[in-house]
Design goal:
The protein is mainly beta. The protein has a domain of 64 residues: 2,3-Dihydroxybiphenyl 1,2-Dioxygenase, domain 1 (Roll), CATH 3.10.180. The chain has one helix and six strands; from the N terminus they run E-E-E-H-E-E-E. The strands form two sheets. Strands 3-6-5-4 form a four-stranded mixed beta sheet, with helices on one face. A two-stranded antiparallel ribbon has the order 1-2. Strand 1 and strand 2 form a beta hairpin. It starts with a strand and ends in a 10-residue tail after the last strand.
Length: 98
């Protein structure tokens, strides 16, 4: 178990989640320069287009996946950091009366 803090910009709605894990957590890592950032995620309008753009600029390729309400993929930047891209799937509209 750990602790997290969610920072949210009031104007843009952008969020940054910071996590801390105790030494006995399976997610804890000994601190070394560059360690401690698991990944950073960005919500994008067109996942496949943004993915192709980042790969063309040198990001490492990876597979796509689905999770609750979103399509996502991970890429590695040229420094080896993981970047998550996700695109929210539109909710299906249910006709009135159903």
């Amino acid at each position: 178990m750990g602790v997290f803090v969610l920072l949210r910009d009031k104007k843009s709605g952008m969020k940054l989640e910071l996590n801390w894990y105790p030494k006995d957590s399976k997610y804890a890592a000994k601190y070394t320069v560059g360690e401690g950032l698991d990944h950073i995620a960005f919500c994008v309008e067109d996942l496949k287009r943004k993915y192709a753009e980042l790969v063309a600029k040198g990001a490492g390729e990876t597979d796509f996946g689905l999770k609750k309400g979103a399509s996502y993929c991970y890429v590695k930047d040229p420094d080896g950091n993981w970047v998550e891209l996700y695109q929210k799937r539109p909710r299906k509209k249910v006709p009135r009366g159903y």
